[in-house]
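Handout, section B. The chain below has 961 residues.
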Amino acid sequence: MPQTEAQLEAELIDQLNQLGYQRIAIKGENDLINNLRTTLADINGIARFSDDEWQQIISHLTTGTIFDKANILRDKLPVKFDDGSSRHIYFLSDDPTQNRYQISNQITVDHTSSNGRTSRFDVTILINGLPLVQIELKRRSMEIAEAFHQTRRYSREAYSAGYGLFGFIQLFVISNGVNTRYYANGTKNIEFAFAWADITNKQINEITDFATSFLTPKHLTKMLTQYMILMSTTKSLMVMRPYQIYAVENIIQHINSNNKNGYIWHTTGSGKTLTSFKASQLIMNMPDIAKVLFVVDRNDLDTQTATEFNNFRADSVDSTNNTKTLVRQLGQQHDKLIVTTLQKLNNAISKDHYSDNISYLKDQKVVFIFDECHRSQFGDTHKRIKQFFNKAQMFGFTGTPIFEKNSTSKAGLKLTTNYLFDKCLHQYVIVDAIRDKNVLPFQIDYLGRYTQKGMQKSKDTNTELTAEQVEAVDTKEVLEDPKRLKMIARHIIDTYPTKTKHGEFTAMFCVSSVEVLTQYYELFEQVQAEKQAEDEAQGKIFKPLTIATIFSYAANEAVETLDGLLDEESADIPTQINQSSRDKLDSYIADYNATFGTNYNSGDSYYAYYRDIATRVRNKQIDILMVVNMFLTGFDAKTLNTLYVDKNLKHHGLIQAFSRTNRVFNEKKPFGNIVCYRNLKFATDQALSLFSNKDKAKEVVIIPDFEVILEKYEAAVKALKTIVATYQDVDDLYTEEQQLSFIQAFRDVVRLHTQLQTFSEYDQDNTSLDKQEFANYASKYSDLKNGLTTGGDKSKTSILEDIDFQLDLLHSDRVNVGYIVKLLQLAKDSKDKNQQQQYRKQVQDILNNDITLYDKQELIQKFIDENLPKMLNGQTVEEAFKDFWDVEKEAAYQKMCVKENLKVETMQKVIQNYEYTKRLPRKDELKDLPNYKVGLFNRDTVLNKLMIQTHQLIERFYMGL
């Protein structure tokens, strides 16, 4: 007989008891507070707190947000005692012997006053009486995601109830017995729930093994006191992943055992900056260390990182090239941790008038942490540090180490990472990261040749293409042929909507040289104008893409490197200038200024222009960023999902460039898209082999071909139709178990459909589930979600309540009401009857097939049938539709208030709050809506009904416009 959830819980409690946790019975909040009062007095060496003394403490503990409580937990509180004395009490010590470890289960929190329900938590770990770790369990046959969504529901509904002491939870652990994950309180997406692993990166999934490794009092204390990060910019908590922790611990162990250097090989996108900075913080506390210098490249410093560092140490990050701040910090002996840039460090130790001020450090132990140590200029920096600091110890972080195979020689020496840093202290390669879902795999299109019919895919071969396949002929004449460049520009414009999910994401395009970039820039203007004319002739709307560019105008930047490695371009003004390149860049910056209302130039605001581009790419204000080498290393943007490539890449340059696309974001971004216009197949396979250090890396890193995913999609559709042969059959699913089977089956179809949408060859109408049938199933799926909380026994939690429906995957940003209004305006303005019909047909197709508009279809159709023919002379469709929509919205709003007997003013506040926060209201925020007294036993039913109706009203009239 399968193990029940209760049995799993009982076994875990027994195991924790054996690991050193005292089992304690806590039924509700009163027991929790009494235990806290006793425990805090005990660990602080106090017999008992008087009522006045306790009031000071409990008042302090019950204020603030989760972030505030995390700070309170790690601080001490001055308490004034009845005898007139004062002393500081602590809530959490980094010494496990100074803490009290307890476990309890099935603690009940009463939040009936807000939503008519109570919540019971599976297993709670209390440290010094405070609930710091919450463990939610599901039986072995259930999805672990259900436990995640249950903790999210608890956070919304239960943790703020009463004194709000569950706001002190720092970590969640979720498990179904065979899979276990941990994450920080406040985590909104299950993609950021982590598996624990051993030092070789082997996952530890079984809950019993996880408890032995992770939940021991000693290790858990270390996680809470050393390996959690309080992010002041976002007021949120983060917890480090296992490989990050092993890297930090290995560095500290290395410092304690010898004076040699070392490096950490953690793949690009795995959070090296966080790891390296945490290492710097902990090393700073070591008594034998005089200084710790955390060294970053100025180009890699984004605004948030700089803010976080400055919050830790005031003015520690100065993004200018002014070296005086660094020299002043080095001269202050109490300043142990200094964050600086590679550029300023070079200045400080190279120039005599600076180095004299810091000469006292020459014979003291100084630790250098380099955030990225694969930089080509690092060999010079390394040499200068060794010459200046006699006891320097250097540690580097890199996602792409320099081996002999991908190194360059200098004075006869191969400057490999091993040569400069002695020893690799920990590895976490791209295969590990993809398996752990910490970065995404790649979907690569090799477009090997061009013909009169357009771009064609290369054969999957490890050899160079034949001479007939002109694309692979590595000659400047062929590669820079204007016909070829125009065909590529047109291909990018045509495929951009598919690759970026109609602009939900953004793209980069890296090219071979500044000269080629300038040709592409002009070609994009030409191609977009042609595309716009073609689409208008066919009754379509084409919105030109926003294309921006930045490049170095140094004298030696104009040509392509022959070796396929990336030259590093600085965002600083070059000393030797190519005037032609600079003039071109100034004209492109002028276009940028006109688009965004800015005032940048290639002179004193060049670096500011660089930073502004980075911000706008992250905010999806730039559709395509065109570069030569800039932004291909060190730049992180989760919203970037596509890289177009028309340049030679290999080894670490290739991995670095491709990795701009593989940051984890959400379910709509299942992989990074790479579109290669050169034959990089062989170079890609070589790079993956070099930097994965694993067998079968290619199978993990590169997702299957279109045909393979399509086959999986068809299998998922077949499984769906086995459960419900038609969408009408969903209505006959009476039990929650039957509904759950449908939800899971259709969700699998949706996930695969999302992956297929990034392939230009995908046409859903040519599958066994065409667009109309898919939309019908999707409507039933959405209705099932929306109707989940109606009816039934509200004292019992539905098994579907914590299912992740992933409705975002059904949403499309391409089509909204505004898009339809534009089509109607074009139809009205056109003098050509055939074109008018084309526009109207597009509108009808959208209304009939787009699931995201299903709640607006009837109203839009009413506007078309009744209002459009009666438009006033000179009135635009947009103005007429706005008037119509306002009338319908007001009528629906008033009708709901009258029918349900609601307070109109309160409803207005609910709507206004949504318009400000863009967040749908929670049940507890609707408790003042009824214009009558709601009985206690009816409260949950009434509020559930109001929540559904309010959500439907907002979704219909305020969303997707």
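Note. DSSP finds 34 helices and 28 strands in the chain. Compare this with the example in section A.
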